[in-house]
């Protein structure tokens, strides 16, 4: 279902932000680093330590998540990192609280499931943002600054560029406009055939992945193709394909993408560095965006 675009209340210094972990389990090191990053940017930090995946049933975890969402003092609800465990929460989330309170909501990877449900149920712009702490891929200061810029001025027009200077690469050139939708390719695939299946009609579909071989990328993309998701879409952005090349064999993650998407009739851009990376771009899912050749522009309100 399409809803009008709703922007979250912009974050400002002094605001309370709540860190949750619906797809994994907190570590003390993670808590220390997340707190240091957020407090260093002037926010009051609350850690919802009982939100971790391994603590309680889906119903219990959803109840705790809803308590966080219903608390209007929480101007942002930020996921520590990805993991596994969000899909069982989708039919239990208080989406009306999200629509009413309009917090900044950010996360990536398995959190894609919640992003997709938020877009379907509310129209609230949410952020495919970096991990608050990652020992495997420490997030760079540039990526942290871009995240803060995005959530403090969520309605502002912005043109994106990779933080490491690499260019975006065109698979199919063109100009198009639509709301951003998507996230992790595996989660998008898992939700096909459910009430939370991705709606691509008139939208720019963003997909990223980590640790999947090219043949698995090919299979997931072909599933979307057979389902007509590229026929309906306004365009496609391919984000990071981290660890998706098949070492010792011909072919790469990007080649698998090109095999499926180079004969579509819509603009397609790859190497937009968002996803499982140390320098990920933050993308405002649900916001209007425009593709112009190799340019990605967030239009804003």
Oligomeric status of the shown chains? single chain
Biggest sheet strand order reads: 6-14-13-8-9-10-11-7
Order of helices and strands: EHEHEHEHEHEEEHEHHEHEEEE
The assigned CATH architecture of the largest domain is: 3-Layer(bba) Sandwich
Residues in helices, as a percent range: 25-40%
Question: What radius of gyration results from the CA coordinates?
Answer: 18 Å
CATH evolutionary superfamily of the largest domain: LD-carboxypeptidase A C-terminal domain-like
Strands, count: 14
Number of domains: 2
Using the coordinates above, name the CATH class of the largest domain: Alpha Beta
Active site: 109, 208, 276
Organism: Extibacter muris
GO biological process, one term: proteolysis
GO molecular function: carboxypeptidase activity; serine-type peptidase activity
Which helices and strands occur, and which strands form pairs?
Blueprint (H helix, E strand, L loop, with lengths): L15 E5 L7 H13 L3 E4 L10 H13 L3 E6 L15 H7 L2 E4 L4 H10 L4 E3 L12 H12 L5 E3 L8 E4 L2 E10 H6 L13 E7 L3 H13 L2 H4 L2 E8 L10 H9 L6 E3 L12 E3 L2 E5 L2 E4 L3
Parallel strand pairs: 1-2, 1-3, 3-4, 4-5, 8-9, 9-10, 10-11
Antiparallel strand pairs: 5-12, 6-14, 7-11, 8-13, 13-14
Helix pairs in contact: 7-9
Q: Could you characterize what this model shows?
A:
With 301 residues, the protein is of the alpha/beta class. It has two domains: 16-152, 3-Layer(aba) Sandwich (Rossmann fold), CATH 3.40.50; 158-298, Glucose Oxidase, domain 1 (3-Layer(bba) Sandwich). Helix content is 29%, strand content 23%. The strands form two sheets. An eight-stranded mixed beta sheet has the order 6-14-13-8-9-10-11-7. Strand 13 (288-292) and strand 14 form a beta hairpin. The two termini are 21 Å apart. One of its GO terms (biological process) is proteolysis. GO terms for molecular function: carboxypeptidase activity; serine-type peptidase activity. Belongs to the peptidase S66 family. Keywords: Carboxypeptidase, Hydrolase, Protease, Serine protease. Residues 177-291 form the LD-carboxypeptidase C-terminal domain.
């Amino acid at each position: 279902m399409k809803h009008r675009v709703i922007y979250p209340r912009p974050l400002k210094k002094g605001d309370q932000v709540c860190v949750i972990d619906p797809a994994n389990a907190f570590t003390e090191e993670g808590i220390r680093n997340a707190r240091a990053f957020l407090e260093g940017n002037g926010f009051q930090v609350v850690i919802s330590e009982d939100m971790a995946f391994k603590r309680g049933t889906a119903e219990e975890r959803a109840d705790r998540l809803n308590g966080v969402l219903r608390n209007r003092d929480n101007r942002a609800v930020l996921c520590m990192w990805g993991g596994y465990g969000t899909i069982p929460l989708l039919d239990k989330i208080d989406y009306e609280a999200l629509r009413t309170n309009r917090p900044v909501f950010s996360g990536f990877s398995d959190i894609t499931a919640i992003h997709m449900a938020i877009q379907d149920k509310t129209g609230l712009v949410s952020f495919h943002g970096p991990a608050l702490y990652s020992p495997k891929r420490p997030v760079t200061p540039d990526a942290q600054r871009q995240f803060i810029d995005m959530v403090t001025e969520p309605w502002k027009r912005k043109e994106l560029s990779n933080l490491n200077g690499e260019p975006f690469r065109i698979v199919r050139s063109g100009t198009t406009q639509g709301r951003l939708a998507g996230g992790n390719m595996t989660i998008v695939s898992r939700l096909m055939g459910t009430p939370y299946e991705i709606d691509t009609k008139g939208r720019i579909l963003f997909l990223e992945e980590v640790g999947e071989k090219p043949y698995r990328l090919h299979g997931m993309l072909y599933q979307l193709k057979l389902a007509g998701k590229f026929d309906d879409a306004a365009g496609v952005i391919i984000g990071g394909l981290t660890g998706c090349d098949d070492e010792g064999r011909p072919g790469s993650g990007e080649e698998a993408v090109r095999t499926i998407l180079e004969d579509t009739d819509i603009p397609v851009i790859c190497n937009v560095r968002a996803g499982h990376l140390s320098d990920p771009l933050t993308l405002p899912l649900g916001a209007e965006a425009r593709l112009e050749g190799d340019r990605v522009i967030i239009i804003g309100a």
